[in-house]
Design brief:
This protein is α+β, with helices and mostly antiparallel strands and 327 residues long. It is built from ten helices and 13 strands. Helix content is 28%, strand content 17%. The structure holds adenosine-5'-diphosphate and magnesium ion. It catalyses: L-seryl-[protein] + ATP = O-phospho-L-seryl-[protein] + ADP + H(+); L-threonyl-[protein] + ATP = O-phospho-L-threonyl-[protein] + ADP + H(+).
Length: 327
């Protein structure tokens, strides 16, 4: 199939990949174990063991044809983004790729702790503490800042696509599902994205240009859900949800944010901003006082107020942009 022609069919897709696509049978090298790890719109993900090493992986099985359309290029785009992001510890690692007549199988690092979704909707004793969310938010932002520096937008950031290396004790995050990701060069029409209404930014609903700011909106929603257990825009039906989003109708009442710091609320407010150009960037978020508490006075540093978002501190992000943030 001519790669270039198909590559132009959807704006912003990257389909040039370096990973060898294996045509020998997956089952010759891996044994499926246990039950399904998860499933999405088109993929089934199963735990497997590599026979040669005994190591555990997650195999994502994706059909090349979906609803009668050839989706091989979408899968190659996903592989290309995973290759590009392999230097970042918070993006799931791609180990191998297999192709059959009907499917492409991505063999991924296994994030054994499952989706953060489960702990977002959990009861109080299982739910995240604010301290947990601060650490996880730093990791998500570190991964997303890496993508954005490389001109890639994820476009499907939600609790089902943020996984944990372990649930108890709470491990580190891994960002998965780059099926909707795009190069940012000139994306204006990515209209098939209306998949997960609750997390979609206002500009997507209005078919306006999307950018890295579109991911930042989703991170605002994600942080809200992780802290409160409630989805800020979810209405009784899709229409109500969309209206809530376009009006930025958000509940910041002390009732909803009981026991949560005002810096956390301030952080979310910097992201749930209708105008994408006025939304905080990933780098700005990493410098936000909520994620940079200074319990011990530092002789060379002035105390910061919430307004420091206007003057993002860049030294930290410039010196070690991709290293895990110690907690
Ligand atoms: P889709 O594009 O169909 O949404 P995803 O890549 O999001 O597919 O995978 C579907 C689900 O499978 C995820 O929400 C998660 O629960 C699980 N999953 C995906 N990748 C992994 C992984 N590397 N380790 C463990 N579970 C995974
Ligand atoms: Mg998914």
């Amino acid at each position: 199939m001519p790669n270039s022609a198909a590559a132009m069919s959807k704006t912003g897709m990257v389909t040039k990949i370096h990973t060898r696509i294996r045509a020998d049978p997956f089952s010759a090298h891996y044994e499926l174990v246990g039950k399904e790890l998860g499933r999405g719109k088109f993929a089934v993900v199963k735990k497997c063991i590599e026979k040669a090493t005994g190591k555990q992986y997650a195999a994502k099985f994706q059909r090349k044809r979906r609803k009668g359309a050839d989706c091989r290029m979408d899968i190659l785009n996903e592989i290309a983004v995973l290759e590009l992001a392999k230097a970042n510890p918070y993006v799931v690692a791609l180990h191998e790729v297999y192709e059959t007549s009907t499917e492409i199988i991505l063999v991924l690092e296994c994030a054994a702790g499952g989706e953060i979704f489960d702990q977002c909707v959990a009861d109080n004793d299982e739910a995240f503490t604010e301290k947990d969310v601060m650490r996880l938010a730093r990791q998500i932002l570190s991964g997303v800042a890496f993508l954005h520096r490389n001109n890639v937008v994820h476009l499907d950031l939600k609790p089902q696509n943020i996984l944990l290396t372990s649930a108890r004790p709470l491990g580190d995050i891994r960002i998965v599902d780059f099926g909707l990701s795009r190069r940012m060069d000139s994306i204006t029409e990515v209209r098939e994205i209306l998949g997960t209404p609750e997390y979609v930014a206002p500009e997507i609903l209005n078919y306006e240009p999307i950018s890295t700011a579109t991911d930042m909106w989703s991170i605002g929603v994600l942080t809200y859900v992780m802290l409160t257990g409630e989805s800020p825009f979810l209405g009784d039906d899709k229409q109500v949800t969309f209206l809530n989003i376009s009006q930025v109708n958000v509940d910041y009442s002390p009732d909803t944010f009981d026991g949560i710091s005002s810096l956390a609320v301030d952080f979310i407010k910097s992201l749930l901003v209708k105008n994408p150009r006025k939304r905080a960037t990933a780098e700005e978020c990493l410098s936000h006082p909520w994620l940079n508490p200074h319990p011990h006075p530092h002789p060379h540093r002035h105390a910061r107020s919430a307004s420091s978002l206007d003057e993002p501190e860049t030294s930290q992000s410039e010196s070690e942009p991709d290293s895990p943030v110690p907690s």
